[in-house]
Every structure is written in structure tokens, then in C-alpha cells.
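hiii so um. not sure if this is the right channel but i have a protein structure encoded as C-alpha cells and i wanna go backwards to a sequence. like what aa goes where. can anyone help
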């Protein structure tokens, strides 16, 4: 929670105004907590994925979110059932998206 609040304080206002100031890598994904996302990713995804590599390369945060949601809903085929809730997805995207740019 502390991290979430910290990143909201650093970037949230910027996002609300819609001004693309260089607000580190969390600007596009202020809803997610990259630190929590790293923990989730390391536990569930890192055995097969690296941030910013493979299927993540070049994807925007929105595309990554859509892809993971698609995996969750079953509309995108994936070799493993991943079982992330919406918060987990936002956090994981906050972690992997910066490297995907
Ligand atoms: C058992 C191995 C494995 C694990 C664990 C795994 N994945 Fe994957 N994932 C794959 C493979 C294989 C592909 C498709 C091959 C490729 O493109 O590299 C893939 C593809 C994806 C894609 C791209 C889907 C698309 O078609 O656009 C996303 C997003 C993704 N995984 C997210 C995750 C997330 C998030 C986790 C952890 C919660 C996770 N994966 C865990 C093996 C895994």
C-alpha cells in the first residue's frame, strides 16, 4: 500500500491532467504497484517469461493488460492458467511494461 500511495502521489496528478511529463515508468500505469507486481510476476510468471522480452516486447501497457485479461478470460490461449485478479494484473503490468517500451 505504501508503494501504491507513493506512486500515486508522484504520478497520479499528472495522469489526471493527462499531461505526459516524464514521470518515471509508472506514468502510463499509475493504478499498478510495480513492486507488488514484481513479486507476483516472480512467483507466477518468471519461470517462463522475462519482463520486456518474448511476447511482451514492444507492447504498450494497455496491450499487455488486454493480453493478460484475455488469458484470464480464456480468449487468448496460454500454456498455463494464471489466475490473476484485476489488481494483480495492474501491478504486473506496472512491473513489466517499463521494460517493454
Ligand atoms: C509455464 C510457462 C508459462 C508461465 C508460468 C506463464 N506463461 Fe505466459 N506464455 C507462455 C508461453 C509459452 C506463451 C506464448 C509463447 C510466446 O509468445 O512466447 C506465453 C504468452 C504470454 C502472453 C502473450 C499472450 C498473447 O498472445 O498476446 C502474455 C501476456 C503472458 N504470457 C502473460 C503471462 C503472465 C502475466 C504470467 C504470470 C501470471 C505468465 N504468462 C506465466 C508460457 C508461460
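sure thing!! here u go:
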Amino acid at each position: 500500500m505504501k508503494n501504491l500511495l507513493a506512486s500515486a502521489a508522484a504520478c497520479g496528478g499528472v495522469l489526471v491532467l493527462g499531461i505526459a511529463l516524464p514521470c518515471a515508468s509508472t506514468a502510463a500505469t499509475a493504478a499498478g504497484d510495480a513492486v507488488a507486481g514484481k513479486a507476483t510476476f516472480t512467483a507466477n510468471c518468471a519461470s517462463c517469461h522475462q519482463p520486456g522480452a518474448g511476447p511482451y516486447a514492444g507492447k504498450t501497457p494497455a496491450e499487455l493488460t488486454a493480453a493478460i485479461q484475455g488469458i484470464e478470460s480464456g480468449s487468448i490461449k496460454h500454456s498455463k492458467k494464471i489466475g490473476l485478479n484485476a489488481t494483480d494484473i495492474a501491478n504486473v503490468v506496472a512491473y513489466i511494461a517499463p521494460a517493454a517500451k
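oh and The two ends are 26 Å apart (CA to CA).
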